[in-house]
Structure formats: structure tokens, C-alpha cells
Design goal:
Helices cover 39% and strands 18% of the residues. The protein has 20 helices and 23 strands. Helix 7 crosses helix 8, helix 11 packs antiparallel against helix 13 and helix 17 packs across helix 18. The radius of gyration is 26 Å and the shape is globular.
Length: 538
Amino acid sequence: MIKLDIQERDGFLIMKDFPKNCIFNKVKTGCGATTIALTNDENYIIAVPTTELIENKCYPINDKDGNVKFWKKHERKSGLSPVVDNLFGLYGDFTIELKKKLNNYLSTTGIKKIICTYDKIAKLMEFIDAKEFKILIDEYHNLLKQYSFRDKAINGVLAHFKEFKSYCFISATPIPNNLKPAIFNDIPEYIANWNTTDEITVYPYHTNTPYMIAAKFIKTYQSKDCLNVNGVESKEAYFFINSVTEIKAILKQTQLTEDNYRIICADNPKNRRTLEGYTISSSAEAPKKFNFITSKSFEGVDFHSETGLCFVVSNVMNRHTLVSIDMDIPQIVGRIRTKANPFRNKVVHIFNTKAIDHYTTLEDMKQAVDEEVKAAQERADMLNNTKLSEAAIKQQIDEIKKVGVESYLSYQENKFVVNDMVAKLQLYSYYIATVVYQSDKSLRETYAQSGIAVTKGKWHIAPEKFVKELITKPTFRELHKQYCNIKANSMAFNLETIDIEHEHLILGRAYRKLGINTLKRLRTIKSIKAELEKLGEM
């Protein structure tokens, strides 16, 4: 790894360009690295993992004059950005209309900037002369993390990146050396040498019921109108949960309405079916008090909030929700970009762990995977050294395709090769599920180790007791205030008031006998009883 002296200002990179043909560990999230490629004097293709990230760049909430605009769904579409000069967003279906827009854009004079999802790289090669463009592969650690369900898109990136004028794989949380696929072995890796460091505070909370605790945090916000952390009030919550099923469960549990929730996930038929009755939103739309975010926005997407606090919810029974401490957590912590936010570098991590701690060791797993790779190499050598007919080659390729993304073999450039991306992904997934989330102790130890190694900043790990105290039972006065606010502003049936009345029967009786205006000024049980006694109701 090569230390790179960088130009920086106020925590942002101000370099003119990136080093060529390399991996660039920028160390910090949200430091303006993508902006360099978007604004310098070079033709650039910026390949990113999600459409959400493209829309976040093409449709920022602040225009050039600083005016705020939240973009509705029908206003956001592939093509030239209406806000950012000369930026073409390429995502979604590659329709005839989109191809026409792209050709028209490429035919104009001037510097070209195209930001696209990974899956568009192979198709884009038909429209451009790659030697006229540099390529930036953003959040490149996703090439490993997402390989199990995006192998075709990722293989497209890996098949073409060397054809460009130059390439740069960039991430603040790069793939660890022990998990790095062979294709990256000979690529030099630079690490940004920052003069400043960030302080990150993590509040781990170990529980058997992570989603019930998430709901309890929401109810605390509702009853107290905020979450008080060390005397500072958070008015908004950002829940990072990579499961729309679990998000829906929390919404049902808390009875949130569209006025106070926002769900940011892939807008596809499957998610729409799962979230039937709820609305899918976007980072470009107005924030709400409670924001639920899937992995499509764990990285690269900017959120703006004066008092928002980030929560991560992980459940070992659903592996999709298990965030990695070295790659995911630093990305999530950096998502809120409002500098004045006192919670900007803080995150509450709610998690459970495995019921038992008897499992194959990581070393045993490594040995098993190494043996599989060795066997795959023997098969590849045998197939390549045997003079096979075209029919036999096709049959073998078809067999590989039947196995799917888990196959250790692939066919590239007229020969069979070992796909070690599969092996590295198996080790990564195993490590997360069975080592990191083995126990409260192991997760905390991983935080301590990764914080130092990954971000080069100062990480503070809060004791569990601190988080428990954040969601203590609300006082009568807090519940009284919440009850009165709901009753004064809504005539609709509300389960929150039913819960509060169940906790304090006197509130329901006072509301019905005294009315909301009188109840508002009576802030203690004693004063309410006194008023009811005057009416002979006690």
C-alpha cells in the first residue's frame, strides 16, 4: 500500500484527478472524491453500485444557488441532469429513447461526464471509444459484497476496465487484503494520507429482539418528541435495515403513517408487493421524522438533517441485514452530510447474535475453500489441455451456468478459469455471520480492531448500559404531552392514544369528561384528579 499525499480542505479532497490504474483508498466517506471526477477537465465514466446514488448526484436537493428542491418520482429520469452541468445519468432500462438521448449527448462538444450503474458498462462500450474516457469504479468493495446477486454486472466491469484511457477503483472501505480477488493482485493500492482524523462513536446494543428494540426507539421519539443523547436532542431517526420485510414489520408495530416515515429501497415489483400499503420513496424526496434505508443507500448517498441520528439493525436470522464492521459501518456513519448535526459521526447498532457458539473455525473454513479452489484449478487445467469440440465446450459452459453464481469455474477469453471471487465471497460471508456476530464481545472487539485499521480515526465504543438508558420508560408528563398533541390534531382513530390510555386510564377519562383544552393545562395526575373530583367523576 502506497501513502499518497493529498490536497484537502475542510475534510474534502481538492485534487485535480486520481492516480492512474490503481485502487485508491480515500479513507474518509463523503470527502468529495466523486465530485473530482464529475467536475475536472477529463472525460469520465463513473460506475456506481445503485441508481439511488446516480439520482442523488443528478438531482441534488440544493441547486447552484443554494435553493432547496425535493424531486418527485416523475421528475427523476435517466439522461442529462437538470442541475449539474454536463452530467448524464445512465440507469434503468436501456430503451430506444435512452439510447437516442445518449447518442445525442455523445455527439455534442465539450467534456463528457457519464455516471452509470455497474451493469451498464458492458453495454456502454458499444457507444463510446473507451480510450477517450477515464473510468472511476466507485465503492468498488461492492464488487465482492454484491457478487452473489450481481455477478453479470460485476463481471462486465471486470471484463472492460483495462480498455479505458485509465482506471481507478475507489472506496473509503476497500476490500481487505485477505479477501481480495486475484484480479486485483497486481494493481497498486494508494491510501490517502489525511492530516485530520474523524472521531466516530458507536453505541452497540445487544438484544434477542432487534426489531422490537428498533420499534421501542421509535416510540421513545414519539412519546418524548425526541431522543436525548448526552443532553442533545435528536428529532429525526435514520434506520439502516437491509430488509423490506423487517421494515414493514417495524412500521406495523409502530403504526407509523406516511406523514412521518420514508422508505428508501429499490422500487421494483418484489418490493412493491412486500410493502403493499406503504410508499417507496427516494433520497431526493423530502426527509421525514423516521427514515428507513436499505443497502441501496448505505454508500455514496448524501442525507441532510440537522438532528438526525443513524441506527443500524442486524438480525442473524436474516443474513442480508448483517452489516460488516470494516466496510458497512464507516459508510453508514458518513451518510448524514449536515456539518452542524451533532450526531453526524455517531451510530446506534442494534443486533442479536448466534444462539450457540459451536461452529467451524474460520481457519477450517479457509482450508475447505482453498481445497475447492485447488480442485477447480485442476478441472480448468484438464479442460484447457484437452482438445474439446465446440459442442463439448458449449456443454461444459452450460453446466457451469446451471450451477450459477456459486460455480468456481467460468469461461473467459476462450479458456476455463477459476473464479476466485466466489471463494472470497464465501469467506467474507462466513466471517460476518459466524465470527463477528458470534457474541456481544466478538462484535465489540471487531469494532475496536476495525476502527483503528480502516478509518485511521478515533473510534469510541459506548457501554451497552448507555443505550438502554436512552429508551427508558417515558414519564407521565411526556405521555400527557404526546396524548394531548394527538388528540388536539387528529380526529382519526390512533393506536398510540389507546396504548397511553392503557398505561394511564385517567387520561382517557379526563379527555372525555374535561375536554382537550382543560386536559392540556393539567400536567400532573394530582391536578387531573382534582378537576375530576369537582365533577364527581372520581
